[in-house]
Amino acid sequence: MSEENKHHATAAAILPLVGGAENVTSVAHCMTRLRLGLRDRSLVRDEQLRALPAVLGVVEDDTYQIVLGPGTVARVTPEFEALVAAENAGSAPASPAPADPDRASGTGTAEALAAQGAALKAERKAKNSTPFKLFLRRIANIFVPLIPALIGCGIIAGLNGLLVNLHWLPGVTPALAAMASGFMALIAVFVGYNTAKEFGGTPILGGAIASIIVYAGVANVEAFGQHLSPGQGGVLGALGAAWLGVYVEKWCRRRVPESVDVLVTPTVTVLVAGLATLFGLMFLAGEVSTLIGDAADWLLSHGGAGAGFLLGGLFLPLVMLGLHQALIPIHTTLIEGAGFTVLLPILAMAGAGQVGAAIAIYYRLSRNTSIRTTIKSALWPGFLGVGEPLIYGVSLPLGRPFITACTGGAFGGAFVGLLNQLGTDVGSTAIGPSGWALFPLLDGNRGLGQTVAIYAAGLTVGYVAGFLATYYFGFTKTMLAELNAAPESPADGDAASVERVAEKV
Predict the structure, then answer these.
(1) Percentage helix, strand, coil for the chain under 3-state DSSP, each rounded to 5
(2) How far is residue 497 CA from its own chain's centroid?
(3) In this predicted model, what pLDDT tens digit does every residue of 224-245 receive, in sequence order?
């Protein structure tokens, strides 16, 4: 089967299992997940979805998210959108998913764990629907669409740096530098565009206001007794400027007569928000951006191993609470200022702890073939930084192994943090990838070889620490006995066993 047919087949298999086209209200994707808005959540066949070969897991948040992995999701999404459009255009009824005889019975320990994972996700979704966390989610929606460009340009920047250091292809490296730097030079414009779109304004006006920040002529403008610099304030300034533009635009729409709205509203929006940007926001956002960079440097130069331990150990709990989205503009600001973010490689150690914990679970539950099968299918995506199947399908429902996995991430983060404190910066030129997928994006202050070696060593520490912590402290004797016991019947044995284990954790 060709790649195109394979992705079409995946989309065609997913559609009926989410209730058909009539049940789909929106379709989008991020780095690894197909994100669906659904009318009726009860029509979704979770277990059959998880059983599809291309599906690595499911996550329920404000949208229903199907984990397909990097690369695959970008190819499946347009096929899925085409199928939804075609079915809706033909007024075809939603294709009902075939009956799942095992759905109610909860057969198998892996299925029972998956059900518990779904319950935990639903509980987390309810807790995360606070105004502050919803605001963070909207901020994340501004930056997530920029990740593919950050990755592509980051890899080109790494390749160019390698060629420059080796003195190879001197006629090509200036062109590569232009490709790598062009997007970052104009990233404020894209942030402004996405901000206006997210908050209900006209996207192109948001981009126009944000473009003021990167215009070379701002060097002739003086604010707070200083001449401005092109790019001053960066993405934070662009975000604030575009948000202000949305507020002004909405104010104008309510008051300007329709006959002159097309002339007055855009002009007033750009004028008012532009003046505020030049004589206030650029300077203030520039100070905040500098403060963020200085704070990150201070944290790792003084906190070192301790800071890395906390960051690596607490990152997954932050994800569960929905607070990790606050880090996205911080990462972007660091990349814009220093060329890389020193926080992401430390946070990536959390995934290494999960992988190590999963391997330990595999060996400890030697008689539980269902959980071992789940781990075997989810382990390689975990190595590549796609951790949702391991988290929601294995460690989180079990309880204690999730904590020991976080411990593994803490030790990996401590190792990378210690090296940062000793003067070796390990950073990433983009956000999004993790695990092994982060290798092409690594950068630092001591050469690529040393940076890669330190990151690889940090992953190894995370794997080993997660394995040891889970192997020796992840299970009580009662948990091991019940999870390794052969069930009396599919319906009453495994599922009940997991429920009893969960009660004891």
Answers:
(1) 75, 5, 20
(2) 33
(3) 888 999 999 999 999 999 999 9
